[in-house]
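INTERNAL AUDIT FORM
Audit reference: QA-55
Scope: verify that the stored structure record matches its stored sequence.
Auditor: D.O.
Record contents follow.
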Amino acid sequence: MDRNLALEIVRVTEAAALASAQWMGKGDGNSADEAAVSAMRTVFDSINFRGTIIIGEGERDEAPMLYIGESVGCGKEPEVDIAVDPLEGTNSVAYGRWNAMSVIAMAPKGDLLNAPDTYMDKIATGPEAAAVIDLSLSVEENIERVALAKNMPVADVTVVILDRDRHQDLMKRVRRTGARIHLITDGDVPAAIATAVPNSGIDMLLGIGGAPEGVLAATALRCMGGELQGRLKPRNQGEIERMKKMGIEDSDRIYKGNELARGDNLMFAATGVTDGDLLDGVRYRRDGATTESVVLRMRSNTRRFIRTEHYFIGEPRY
């Protein structure tokens, strides 16, 4: 994939962030999500590539745009697979909370896992401990391994966990090790990425979240030298059948980062919608807005943090 494509796709996340941020704190997550989807889809049509949505807003009969299998882009090549979350953290926008982002991951055709819309048990960490985590091991052993790899006492390790009832036992086990916990209400993609950001204060992520978000986060972490491993956790027979339809027979399989996002030609972009651990949210002003984005490209081993000043004359132009 051309290196310029990495800078093109950030226009996609910027557009979605600008559109959805207008709904911040208004208690209407559906409208925020619809605005993000519509803006993202519009900008895709201006980019010279041939993309296929493999992780998106659902099946064709469930979503009018950015559905799984939809073709996007206005060119014939490069041919790429795309995973999108136009608004990661819908509730965060609806209620003015932390860590909402617009997110996209891109890879050559066949290099991103076509993850079903189910849950995934995850563990993630940054480059220093990427080689030592193992989802097949206990929570306690993984925390010990991360502490040793980062040359720090267990008491200083900070684990980020989604604040959900299903994680009550996990939180008890983490606390018994002496490690610290940072609870988040939504948004485990930025939380996973934060494990690879120096001085973020986050050392590892544990717990169950969305499987599609696992692929997005794994792509970003591979670009940053980190690691995310996941095991699918279907909630019902319908989700098991959906997995089989997508070619996944073994629900107990542990996927490593290089199986969730394969190869070395990976790209990732995200734009903040609300303020978060990784990015500032959209700032509106009288004549426009300011956005902050990150663009990651594995092949060039680059991380670009982009602050963009958008000036509006009439309707916003993406």
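Auditor finding: record pair retrieved intact. The chain has two domains: 3-111+266-311, 119-260.
Action required: none
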